[in-house]
C-alpha cells in the first residue's frame, strides 16, 4: 500500500520527536502493509513552517537510516500546506512542495471555515498545472454542515483525501458516516493515514480498506489504492462525476481525471 499523508519526519512538527521515533513509526508502517509513503510535515499552519529544502534533507537522512536498519519502506518528500495566498509563489521558489514532486499538492483548510479566495486560488493552481488535494475534509465544519460547498470545489477540479481512522470508525460514528457519504457522492478520492506516531494516529489503511470492502465492495477499495499509486507516480487519477446531494449511490465505476 501507498500512504500519501504522513508525519514521519522527526522534530519538525507534531509528529515524532526523535529519529528513533521516526524509525519506530516506519517499522509500524511496514507491519501495517505500507511499502511507500510521502512525508508531509505541516507548512504554514500557524505553528510550523517547513521549507522544501529542509524537508528533502530530512527525507534523505531518514531513508539512509532506514536502509541501514533494513526497514523496507520508501519515503518521499511532500508537505501538508495550510491554505494561503502565497502557495504558487512558494511552489516556484521550492519552498512549498507537491507530493513526491508530482502535480498534486496536499492542502489543509482550517477545521472551521472555507476561505473566500479558495476558488480563485485553486483555479490559478490548476492553470499552472497543479491539482489541489484537500486533506481530511471530514474535519471541516463547513463541509460537514454544507457538503454542497465541497461538491462545488470537486466539480471545479480539486480532489480530496479522507483519513483512514475516520473511515474505520476510530474517529467516531458521525465522522465515519460523513466519510461514507463523501464516497457515495464521488467526493472522496484518496485514503491516507495522517500518521503521527505508533500510538497517535497510527497507520490504519488496512482497516479503512476493509471497511470500504464491506460497505461498498472491493472495486471501490481498489480504486482508492489505484488513485494513491497514480498520485505517487504523477499519473491521472480515476474519478467519477461528483453527485449532488439529492442523489445517492453505494457502488461506483470510476472514470479518469
UniProtKB/TrEMBL annotation:
Reactions catalysed: O-phospho-L-tyrosyl-[protein] + H2O = L-tyrosyl-[protein] + phosphate
Keyword flag Hydrolase: yes
Entry keyword Hydrolase: yes
Enzyme class: hydrolase
Keywords (A to Z) from UniProt: Hydrolase, Protein phosphatase
Entry EC number(s): 3.1.3.48
Regions crossing the membrane: none
MF-aspect GO terms: manganese ion binding; protein tyrosine phosphatase activity
SUPFAM superfamilies: PHP domain-like
Pfam assignment, any one: CpsB_CapC
Family per record: Belongs to the metallo-dependent hydrolases superfamily. CpsB/CapC family.
Protein name: Tyrosine-protein phosphatase
Organism name: Sinobaca qinghaiensis
Amino acid at each position: 500500500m501507498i500512504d500519501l499523508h504522513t508525519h514521519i519526519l522527526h522534530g519538525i512538527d507534531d509528529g515524532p520527536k526523535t529519529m528513533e521515533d521516526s524509525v519506530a513509526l516506519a517499522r509500524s508502517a511496514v507491519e501495517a502493509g505500507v511499502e511507500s509513503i510521502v512525508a508531509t510535515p505541516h507548512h504554514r499552519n500557524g505553528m510550523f513552517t517547513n521549507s522544501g529544502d529542509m524537508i528533502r534533507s530530512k527525507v534523505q537522512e531518514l531513508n539512509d537510516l532506514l536502509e541501514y536498519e533494513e526497514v523496507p519502506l520508501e519515503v518521499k518528500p511532500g508537505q501538508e500546506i495550510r491554505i494561503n495566498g502565497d502557495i504558487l509563489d512558494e511552489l516556484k521558489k521550492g519552498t512549498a512542495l507537491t507530493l513526491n514532486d508530482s502535480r498534486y499538492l496536499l492542502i489543509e483548510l482550517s477545521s472551521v471555515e472555507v476561505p473566500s479566495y479558495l476558488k480563485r486560488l485553486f483555479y490559478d493552481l490548476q492553470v499552472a498545472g497543479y491539482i489541489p488535494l484537500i486533506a481530511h475534509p471530514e474535519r471541516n465544519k463547513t463541509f460537514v454542515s454544507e457538503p454542497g460547498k465541497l461538491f462545488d470545489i470537486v466539480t471545479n477540479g480539486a480532489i480530496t483525501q479522507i483519513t483512514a481512522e475516520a473511515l474505520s470508525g476510530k474517529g467516531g460514528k458521525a465522522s465515519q458516516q460523513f466519510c461514507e457519504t463523501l464516497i457515495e457522492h464521488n467526493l472522496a478520492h484518496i485514503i491516507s493515514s495522517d500518521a503521527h506516531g505508533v500510538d497517535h494516529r497510527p497507520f490504519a489503511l488496512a482497516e479503512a480498506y476493509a471497511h470500504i470492502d464491506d460497505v461498498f465492495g472491493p472495486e471501490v477499495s481498489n480504486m482508492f489504492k489505484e488513485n494513491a499509486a497514480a498520485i505517487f507516480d504523477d499519473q491521472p487519477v480515476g474519478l467519477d462525476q461528483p453527485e449532488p446531494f439529492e442523489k445517492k449511490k453505494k457502488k461506483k465505476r470510476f472514470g479518469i481525471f
